[in-house]
Every structure is written in C-alpha cells, then in structure tokens.
Amino acid sequence: MGTGSLWLKGTQNIGEDVTLVAQGWIRNDDIFRANGDSKKLQEGYIKFSSGNVDYRIGRQIIVWGRADRLNPTDNLTPRNFTLLTPEEDDQRIGSLAAKATYHSHENSLTGIWLPGMDPHVFPVATTPGVFFTQHIPRINRIALKFDRSGGDVDWSASYYNGSDLTPDIAIGAITPSGANLIFDHNRIRVLGMDAATVIGRYGLRAEAAYAWAVNTGANDFLVKKPFFIW
C-alpha cells in the first residue's frame, strides 16, 4: 500500500482590488488500485476590499485561535480526519461563507455568515449489524470576532452560534438487521478568548472557550452538556 498526493493553489487578480483564490488536492491512498483516487476543492472564493473593510465570499477555510494545536475557539470550518497528511492543517475543509473584516489601526472586527454546515469527517469503521445516520441541520450559522494585534499583548474575543462540527451520538431504531447510530449535529453557542505575548525569550499563548449546548438537564445523556475548555 502506498499514498500519493498533489496539492494545488492558484490566485487570479481581477482589477486592482479583486482576487480569485482556489485551492485543492488530488490524492491516491492506494497507488496499486486504479479506483483509489480522490479529489477535493478545499477553497474557492473571491476577495476584495472597500475602504477599511475586507470581504471574502465563497468556500473558505477560517481558522481561529492563537494556541498551538488545541484551539477551543476554532469552531467554524471542519477537518477530514480520514486523511493521512504530514501537516494537520492539510486536513482542513472549507465551508461556504461570507466574511467581512473592518480594520482600525491595531483593531479589527470580523463578522461571518455561514449558510449550512459541513461537519468533521471521522474514520468510522464498518461494523456488521451497525448502521450510521448523520443528521446535519440546514441552519444559518453566525460568528463575530474582535481582534487586537500589534501591541505588547495580542488578543481576541469571539462568539459563535451554530451547529456543532462534532456530533452527539444517539441510538436510533434497533431491528433484527442491526442497530442504527445517529450522529446529531446540535446547536451550540461558544464564547471564547485567546491571547499571546512575549516575555524575554519565551512566547506565551492562552486560549479558552465556554460552550452552551441544547442539553435539557441531568438526565439527558445523549447531548453534550455545557462545557469549558482551555
């Protein structure tokens, strides 16, 4: 078994302030099988500026958080955990979104609207007698972020309201042919902050978030409860 992949990215300027961006990959997870090919358009969006406001519209990867690896505020665009890649960021998948960022000196304010959702992709093994159903709600998602960069301490505060990229798992119908496991992507609201600074030779980073879930109480075991992560 062998794996081969080709990653491509292209940009095209249209006029002075408008740019088209496209990025994707072609890969084969088993070079000895002719049908082992797969391909994915990670990003395809248009970006432009007007005064102090930058706009991006289309399928795009949006990364939030200043901490290394574990980012509690990174809730907007998913990952494909079935991809074997040397870099974790290569697992990211873009989502359809409209993004606007207003800049004022060291400060910026970003608003994002995401119609629909693409969830995380997990490597779920095929098990005899077990079936999987994924419920993806078609709801609008919104996110806001205030960011301050360029001073002694860089920091941001963010808010997200939308579907959870990581599902809750419930047991559905059980029939003679097997059991149905349901992956529910329930609504969550996340309030987060991050910060980064340098003290002498050392760089310090911190990030934390609190999430409100739709759990109905202590006896609701099928939906994650509100949680704090840092």
Explain what this protein looks like in three dimensions.
- The chain is mainly β and 230 residues long.
- The protein is globular.
- The chain has one domain.
- It has no helices and 14 strands.
Index terms:
3-stranded mixed beta sheet; 11-stranded antiparallel beta sheet; mainly beta
> Structural class from helices and strands?
mainly beta
Shape: globular
- Note the total helix count: 0
* Rg over C-alpha atoms, rounded to the nearest angstrom: 20 Å
Number of domains: 1
Mean pLDDT: 89
Largest sheet data: 11 strands, antiparallel
Number of beta-strand segments: 14
The CA-CA distance between the termini, in Å, is 39 Å
Low-confidence stretches: none
Biggest sheet strand line-up: 1-2-3-4-5-6-8-9-12-13-14
Helix content percent band: under 10%
In percent, how much strand structure appears in the residues? Answer: over 45%
SSE string: EEEEEEEEEEEEEE
List the helices and strands and how they pair.
Layout: E1 4-14, E2 18-28, E3 37-50, E4 53-60, E5 95-104, E6 107-115, E7 130-135, E8 140-148, E9 153-163, E10 168-175, E11 178-184, E12 187-199, E13 202-212, E14 227-229
